[in-house]
Design goal:
Length: 124
């Protein structure tokens, strides 16, 4: 059984940083693409970033490019999302997901297992 557990969320002031972790069990993260999505209050869930089995990275909106970095620790079977220069509009529940394949896609249907989410709140 595949299980994803996110951690690292919290309350931070604008301009601060957080690192989210996603610990996987039941699936080797280095063999599948892993993604991060987020859902702000009253909005649809949106794609943030993904890393393919080969280490290739893609990012969602221009608002996160250059501020967020997705990475992976194969030994720990864990994926990270480093978030710098946080803004109030980054406030959301952040979800980790594992893809059906080794390729990272921004579409939700490409992912078959999801974590429970971790809350990130950025104060102005």
């Amino acid at each position: 059984q595949v299980r994803l557990v996110e951690s690292g969320g919290g309350l931070v002031q604008a301009g601060g940083s957080l690192r989210l972790s996603c610990a996987a069990s039941g699936r080797t993260v280095s063999s599948y693409a892993m993604g991060w999505f987020r859902q702000a209050p009253g909005k649809e869930r949106e794609f943030v970033a993904a890393i393919s089995w080969s280490g290739g990275r893609i990012y969602g909106s221009d608002s996160v490019k250059g501020r967020f970095t997705i990475s992976r620790d194969n030994a720990k079977n864990t994926v990270y999302l480093q978030m710098n220069s946080l803004k109030p509009e980054d406030t959301a529940v952040y979800y980790c997901a594992t893809s059906r394949t080794g390729l990272g896609y921004p579409q939700e249907y490409a992912y078959d297992y999801w974590g429970q989410g971790t809350q990130v709140a950025v104060s102005s």
